[in-house]
Amino acid sequence: MSLKPEDVATIQSFFSSVNDNLLGKLEVNFREVEIANNQRQVIADFPVVDYKEDHSVSKIYAGNLLFTLQKSTFFHWEIEHVAIGQTINEVKS
Fold it and tell me: What is the pLDDT of residues 48-62, one digit of tens each?
């Protein structure tokens, strides 16, 4: 699978905030949304939980990437576009 350079830059930009904030291990959850018969959007949610020394929750962060897929053949999908849905930020309760 090949990504366009601008899509790679989008993904790198998204994950740079994880490194900048020294966040721990990321989880990833995927959701698929049908846009059209031959087009789908995959939403990759990234929740991050930051813990205190006593193992209680300190902060929760979340963000997501949006992957727009185009069906090119019966069994083959191509990534048409990658966008940041929400940058990784602290979730306020």
Answer: 888 899 999 888 999
